[in-house]
């Protein structure tokens, strides 16, 4: 089933203990799309400025991602983000954010993008997320990501947006904040209780500790793939979401069983682990599916006990 | 195989979002011993003051723990610790530490305590740990815990102590600090490289995220048991260590295979999850083995994927 992702397409300038890069291709929709492209057809929707070139589009096209929904705004500037990571890569400081064309972005999806069975609303203003969601009438599975900014400034809209999707993918600290509950599982169950739609799920991203999948009657946890060296954590969460949602999409009309969702978590985890091994999109852009499969097998071995 | 644990026996005054308790029975050796007592004979070694009474000893004796190695110092005061936990229980502030009898503690193990096949050196000054280790000549499996204070103030001794044991059980942030390596697995492999003794292991305690077992050629990760409510996290790490080491000890003369160590991690995880559900030792003191087994089964279910 094709996947549509709506979110940021960006230039990222990042400094980590392993080096510094200027204006790399980035943004949530980009990292998501590259990861999801290992599983199914992907349509990316988002705005860029006229500083966004063919070289950037080619990174997506080489993975057969449909870039026709990338809206180029004349005289606009592509979303820009500059950040610096600390010694152990768990702390990062945002040094600069320039919304550029994102400031006036109003997504209008093409017929093709609307027709996707699966839609991912990357971390953008929740009213925008809702307006995208409302355009995707045939969607069988919709998911969103969000952040503390929207919890602080647009909570009522965010709660509505959450109740219009099947799955929330969110950092664990933000999940606790959203639900105002100190425990991860308590917070997830609280968010699930806001809507009675069956089969809803919360995926908590735990950073270097992995991810947890919480449903009304189930709990699954998977660690991050252990790496001796993490070069650039930027986009790890979006790569995870892309692998997870991409795997779900590729199951076509199958019922979303716990088994299938767990395997999707493992694929998301594996792809995210490649993403952080090099700067920006470098590693995932040349990733092969057999490498992904191998890490999924490793993860199964690293978590099993008799 | 009997287990000897040397470490703190304490009174803890703790405030958490769920309430406040004064002078509860606590200390690393106590939490460890209670957890390990589910698997084998346990000898506790540590000093207390004359403020330590029969009621406290009875908590240990009721679990058939040998308390004859608890040294009562006349006119001394039992180690005291006061702390307060924040909203999500991940941050705690130590408000008061009074070493009391611990200040001049020089452990001399009884013949029985020395003869244990398994010894756990809870978090105490590394020179003390080494002097205990040197008394246990028949030990088949020795493990230690440590903390940032000793990394900062007694690093050369600590490195020697580490190289004299089979297993280091340590919080992940402290492991990174100890090895001066930002990645968990990189730090663990660095510590393992300090000695060529075969079969060595590092267990990284990840707090609410669980624990990881790193050996020269293996990696295993297990999440914490998901709880909607954590009342008091004090002693979770020591309960984990007690369950882990206790399970290892109970395997008698079996070879310590990866399978066995992984199962030990699950038992440690299960017992730690009970520890934090009530204040101090309250929950573990009345815990039943069938409840522990049930959580181990649940953990297996919560981490498996096909």
Kindly list the characteristics that best describe this protein.
homodimer, alpha/beta, UDP-N-acetylmuramoyl-L-alanine:D-glutamate ligase, four-stranded mixed sheet, 13 strands
Write structural notes for this entry.
The structure is a homodimer of 306-residue chains. By secondary structure, chain A is of the alpha/beta class. The first copy, chain A, has a single domain, classed as Ribokinase (UDP-N-acetylmuramoyl-L-alanine:D-glutamate ligase). Helix content of chain A is 38%, strand content 24%. Chain A is built from twelve helices and 13 strands. Chain A has a nine-stranded mixed sheet with strand order 5-4-1-8-9-10-11-12-13, with helices on both faces. A four-stranded mixed sheet of chain A has the order 3-2-6-7. In chain A, a hairpin with a 2-residue loop joins strand 2 and strand 3. The longest helix of chain A is centred in the last third of the chain and has 18 residues. Chain A is globular. The mean pLDDT of chain A is 96. Chains A and B meet through helix 8, strand 13, helix 10 and helix 12 of A and helix 8, strand 13, helix 10 and helix 12 of B.
Task: Briefly say what this structure is.
With 306 residues, chain A is of the alpha/beta class. Helices cover 38% and strands 24% of the residues of chain A.
End-to-end span of chain A in angstroms? 36 Å
**Strand sequence of the main sheet of chain A, in spatial order?**
5-4-1-8-9-10-11-12-13
Can you tell me the overall shape of chain A?
Answer: globular
Q: CATH H-level name of chain A... which superfamily? A: Ribokinase
**CATH architectural grouping of chain A:** 3-Layer(aba) Sandwich
Q: According to CATH, what is the topology of chain A?
A: UDP-N-acetylmuramoyl-L-alanine:D-glutamate ligase
Q: Which pair of protein chains has the largest interface, and what are the residue counts?
A: A-B, 38 and 38 residues
Number of domains of chain A: 1
Oligomer: homodimer
Structural class of chain A: alpha/beta
Name the poorly predicted regions of chain A.
none
How many strand elements of chain A? 13
Question: Count of DSSP helices of chain A?
Answer: 12
Element-by-element helix/strand order of chain A: EEEHEHEEEHEHEHHEHHEEEHHHH
């Amino acid at each position: 089933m094709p996947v549509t992702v709506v979110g940021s397409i960006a230039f990222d300038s990042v400094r980590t203990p392993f080096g510094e890069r200027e204006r790399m291709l980035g943004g949530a929709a980009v990292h998501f799309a590259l990861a999801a492209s290992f599983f199914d057809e992907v349509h990316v929707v988002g705005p860029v400025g006229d500083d966004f070139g063919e070289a950037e589009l080619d990174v997506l096209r080489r993975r057969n991602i449909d870039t026709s929904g990338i809206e180029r705004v004349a005289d606009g500037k592509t979303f820009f983000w500059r950040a610096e990571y600390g010694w152990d890569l768990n702390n990062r400081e945002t040094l600069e954010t320039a919304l550029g064309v994102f400031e006036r972005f109003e997504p209008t999806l093409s017929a093709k993008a609307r027709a996707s069975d699966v839609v991912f609303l990357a971390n953008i203003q929740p009213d925008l997320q809702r307006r995208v969601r409302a355009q995707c009438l045939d969607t069988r599975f919709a998911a969103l990501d969000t952040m503390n900014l929207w919890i602080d400034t647009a909570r009522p809209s965010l709660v509505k947006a959450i109740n219009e999707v099947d799955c929330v993918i969110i950092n664990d600290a933000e999940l606790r904040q959203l639900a105002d509950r100190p425990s991860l599982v308590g917070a997830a169950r609280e968010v699930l209780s806001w809507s009675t739609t069956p089969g809803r799920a919360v995926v908590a991203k735990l950073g270097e500790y992995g991810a947890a999948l919480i449903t009304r009657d189930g709990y699954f946890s998977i660690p991050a793939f252990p790496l001796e060296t993490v070069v650039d954590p930027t986009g790890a969460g979006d790569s995870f979401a892309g692998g997870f949602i991409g795997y779900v999409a590729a199951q076509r009309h199958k019922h979303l069983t716990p088994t299938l969702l767990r395997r999707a978590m493992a694929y998301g985890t594996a792809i995210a682990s490649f993403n952080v091994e090099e700067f920006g999109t470098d590693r995932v852009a040349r990733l092969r599916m057999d490498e992904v499969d191998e890490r999924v097998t490793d993860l199964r071995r690293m978590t099993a006990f008799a």
